[in-house]
Amino acid sequence: MSCKMCEKQKNIKDDPYFIMELETGYVILGWFQRFKGYTVFNCKEHGPELHNLEHSFKIKHLEEMSIVAEAISNIFKPDKMNYELLGNGCPHIHWHLYPRVKGDTPIVSSVYQLSNEELFDESTRPNEEQREELKEKIKNEIVRLLLK
Ligand SMILES: [Zn+2]
């Protein structure tokens, strides 16, 4: 069965939102920054479930996902990080890492209570300069954490 994300990952480094490659995945800046710092971590393996991954790869993937989230947390200082591994639309393992702050949604719950218009609001898409600045910050912090 073909998977859009497996296909896309062949040229992922050409994606303008691509931040960096880790051992088990690719760090991608979220297209929309309604939640400032929103970042996606795509697994190099399809999955679709965590338990389908080879054990040591899975442990490494979870560790790297945690480092990406930590980097975002250090930069954006949210009240709470959200780690979302859903895959209902695309089953390929990919994490939505959302920095959350008090009052950022009407109800204290998942970001998906917002309408698509709000989640994918073009006015929250960073311009090229902002995008490059965000990518650089996130990359530098991940590298710093990996060297610790
Ligand atoms: Zn896939």
From TrEMBL:
- Judging by the UniProt lineage, the source's domain of life is Bacteria
Question: Could you cite one Gene Ontology molecular function of this protein?
Answer: catalytic activity
What positions does the domain HIT occupy?
5-107
Q: Where is this motif: Histidine triad motif?
A: 92-96
Q: Which InterPro entries match?
A: HIT-like, HIT-like_sf
Indicate what this protein is called per its UniProt record: HIT domain-containing protein
This chain's source organism reads: Clostridium fungisolvens
